[in-house]
Each structure stands twice: as structure tokens, then as C-alpha cells.
Amino acid sequence: MNDWLAPVRRVLDRSPEPIRFFFRDNNVGREDERLYEMLDVFAAHEIPIDLGVITDLLSDSLARNLQARLVASNRRLALHAHKVIGRSFPARARTLADHKAAREPIVDATAGEGASLCTEASAALNLISSDVTELAAVASADSAGSPIRVHWCRYGPGGREILGRRIAVAASRRQPIQFVLNHASIFGSELVALEELLLLLANHHKAQCLLMRELTGSSSANDAGQDVAVRAPIQAPEIGTATARWWPERFSRTGRRVRWLWLAACVAVACAIGWYRLADVGPRSQFLTARVLRGSIENTVLAAGTLQPYAYVDVGAQTSGQLKSLHVQLGDKVKKGQLLAEIDPLISASKVAEATATLANLQAQWEGKKAQFELARLQKARSDDLTRQGAQATSESEIAQSNYKLAHSALQALEAQIKQARAELETAQANLAYTRIIAPMDGEVISISALEGQTLNATQQTPTILRIAQLDPMTVWALVPEADVSRLTAGQDVYFTILGRGERRWHGRLRQILPSPQVIGNVVFYNALFEVPNPQRELKVQMTAQVFFVLAQAKDALYVPRSALGKTHSGRAGPHTVRVLGDHGSIETRKVEVGITNAVSAQILSGLSEGDTVIIGAASLAPNHKAGSLHSVKPPR
Fold this sequence. Notes:
By secondary structure, the protein is an alpha+beta fold. The chain folds into five domains: about 5-215, TIM Barrel, CATH 3.20.20; about 240-280; about 285-300 and about 555-620, conserved putative lor/sdh protein from methanococcus maripaludis s2 fold; about 300-310 and about 455-550, Beta Barrel (Elongation Factor Tu (Ef-tu), domain 3), CATH 2.40.30; about 345-435. It contains 13 helices and 25 strands. Strands 1, 2, 3, 4, 5, 6 and 7 form a seven-stranded parallel β-sheet that branches. β19 (about 520) and β20 form a beta hairpin. The protein starts with 5 loop residues before the first helix and ends in a 19-residue tail after the last strand. About 30% of the residues are buried.
């Protein structure tokens, strides 16, 4: 966790009661890809968010995507109709007649808050359902309950500390805090900073993230995640005063038979309308339904990680001096033994010459001492012969013996000095060789710490010149919360995605979990490591990765939304029940055997067939909202 969130964490730690947080984005309709990236981050941390949909910019693809996310959000996503006053936008979707003819499901929405959201029957609300959630009560609430707005995009990357203090001050007032987002400006470092905030709020017990309707107590059609369709506006023609005068005159001039024909036609129309309404408000329109589908399902543990080199080495200088030349640049590929840099060799070369001259002098002295030793040895041998023959005094023999020993000790001392001189010469030669910096391994240059002309001092600490790393493969360091680390074992399948490439997955196998923990914001994490091939160098050092550890998975399996499963009688694991909706509105309760489950879907092993319609919840319709059949949406995996 970065330091900019430290004030927020301290306020949450000291708060006597939970602090409520809300997130909203009123610009849905622009920059869809960045919207999907931001919503993926919110879904990964299970943080709710309110979205204001600009109805004039609603497209088919955006509507279908929001519809699927609405069903899979488990009431963590709310949509509101949003129209910018005084501005018009070119319609991205097809015409309304095309929508009606195609009968494609488009997301229903509810109105938002303040003057920026349409709360009247305007042209924007004609494009959506009339089910409108009034959130304007938030603005008129008392000062103690109204939320404090924090505009995320007013603070750039350089103002992150200011934003952290602003959030901390707002949280210290113990009032709800509303973050106003703009997904079009949230990408790169901004998206990383937003994910850091969501990680803190998702793991702190004093942070409570809610939807705006939970503050006002209102409800809407999308509370249960239902999928409803955009209806074409049906506007009755305006009846003028001339027509009002014409009708009684014409009716009065009509004969009895004509009047009876008019009355019969009106009764027939009324009966048709009544039959249509009664037929549409059946059991099917009272429930949210989904189809039993076949596909892949998996249960995963989510973690945040960073990419690091598989192996690297910091190349330094073992001798002091000026960095004379640098033969590589950032990104260069090097081989073991390749010349990387050179330090000025003048001082080292002079020391080598000095040590060489000293050694030569000592060797010359050794030659003289050697000759003196040989002379003393011959004199001693001659003196010993004369003494044995009795032709020489004993004192002369002792002098010869003493000279021999002195010459021998002088020769040994000089030999020791020669060995020392040779060692000093080898040291000087090694220091001279150290002026040439050689690559210790194959790899790529990923950082350079010293520049040409810089003086390096290797007396106390080895200075680092550059770093060489092996980028194929790469190692992913994933931070796993302590609540999930016990579910992981070495060898498990794992995959991850990176920012900006959410559709691409990189796969690997868990290598190890480091025993030493890392505490971030009073939450204990453990580092899980695994490798991934990187032959094309698409993965860079320090990239942020969203890691998924696969606990269980199944392919070509039947699955339903998890909300379709009923609770067991004992509350423990066991057979579940689901309600199946028949073709004629009949409801049947079946026992099913459940396999793999995750936050969205559940695998069905027995009890259901592909294509069955299951009930996932009750529809919540406003008094003026016309009930209708609800479409089945395939939930995302």
C-alpha cells in the first residue's frame, strides 16, 4: 500500500463505527473499453458502484454488456438514467424503430441524483423504463447524513497525497463519502491508484461500501439484477379543441345502429387490452429467470501481483576510479564475458609497474646473496677439512661456520621479500583487470546506475554500475491474503491478466509460497511465486498483474446463476433446491447436486437439463411499470 493512503487507514482504524463509501460514474456511454476495465477492478474487489447511463449515447454492445454485468453483480451494480442538461449527443445506437423490430435486450436504468440526472418524463426517460429511483433525497437530507463528494479526477498523479488527505478529512467527519468518477480519465497509474483504494476499503473492517439506494432506502428494478428491455415510446396523438368539438357533433348525428357499432368496437378494444394485460402479468413476469447453460466454470482465488525478472545480477566496480567508457545501453542483450564498461586504468597500471620494478630489484639482490651464500658454504667446507687434519685453529673454523649461517639467513629473508613482492604484483594486476567490467551472465541490461565520467569509490561499498536480468521466463510475485493462502498448494494452475490486455491470459503453475509474510495496512499477505514464458518480451518488469489461482475447474458443464440455489435446511453443505419455471407458468421445485461454485455461477451435476428455466429472484416492479417477460442472460464466468 502506498503512503498516500496512510491518512485514510489511520482514520478508519480510529473510527468507532463503520464509515460508508459510495462510488458513481455518470459518463457511461463514452470510452466503453476503459469503462469495462474499471468495472472489472470493482468486480474483482466486490465493491458496489452506481452508473449514470447517458441514454443518447447508449449502444447495443454497451447495453448487452451492462445487462450481463447487472445480472452477475449480485446487487453490487446499479444503473441510473443520466442526461446532461443543455447538451445533445449523436446517437450511437440504432433508431428506436430498429430496436423495437429487433427486440434486442437493452439495459434498463433508473434516474440519478441532483440536477444532472433527469427525474421527469423527458425524452431521455422515454428511451428507458419508467421505473425511476429518486436519489435526490440524498441532497436534501440533513447535514449529518448527506454524503461528502470527492471528485477523483480533480487530483492528478502528482496530487495523490492531497487526495489521500482529502479522503481522510471527509472520513473523519463520520459522514457518507461519495466518490465521483470519470472512467474516461481513469487508466494507467490512475487505475492502479483506484485499485489501491478499493483494496484498502475491501479489506478494512471499518469501511462499508454501499450503493446510493441503500442510503436513501429506495429500490428499483435493477436491485435484484434483473434484465429488462428498452421500450419504444408510445406517445398518443394530442387531441386539440377542434377534435373535441367534432366528436360529440358527429356522434349526435350518427344513427342508433352506428352508435351500437361504435360501442361494440370500444368494448372489443377494451377486452383485448384487458386480456393482454392479464396475460402478461402472470407468474413468468413476477420472477427473474435464467437459462441452464453449458460451458466452462472455475473456482479461483484472486490476488494482486507484480512481474519480476526470473534471475538478475547487479554489476559493480571492484576498484576505484573514473568510469572511462560504457559499452552498453538500456535494453541491450549481452553474453557472459562481454565487456560492459571500463574504468580509467592509469593508477592501476602504475601500481603494476611499481610492483614489477620492486620484484625485479629483489630478484637482483637475491642473485648477490646467492653468490655470497655459495662462497660462505665453500669456505665452511674448506675450514672443516683443515680442522680435521689439525692444520687450522678451532677459532678459524667457528668464524667460517658463522659466516655460512649469516649468508644462509640473508638469502632466506630475501626470498620471503620476493614472495611478498610477487603477491603485491598479482594484486596490482588483478586491480588492473578489474578496470574492465565483464558480464557475469547472459541477459538484458534493464537499468544503468552510473554514467561515463562518474568517479566510483569502491573502498567501503561496491558501487553498482548496471543490472543484468533474464526476462524469459518472468516471475510473478502475487500477494495472497492469509485467509486464502491455506487453499493454495504448489503445482496448482494459475493465470493472470495485465492492465490494458484484459482479454489476454498468461498461464503457469504455482512454484512456492514464501514463508515470511508481508503486512500491508494491518492485513497479512504472503508472496506466491510462479514463472511464465516471455519469448516476445510482452511482459515488462514491475507490471501489475491480476492473478487467478485455479482451485477447481470443469469444462462442458451445466451451470446456473448462484442466486438460483436455495438454502439447505441445516445451513451446511448438502443437496440444494431450485425452482424451475414451466412453459405455462407452473413452478416446480427440484433437488440438484451442485459441483464447483464461485461468486457468480454454480455447476449442476444432476437434477437439471440444458435449456431449463430457473427462478433466480422475485421481480421488483414500480406501480406504473408494465410487467413483462424477463430475458435470460448468460452470466460471465
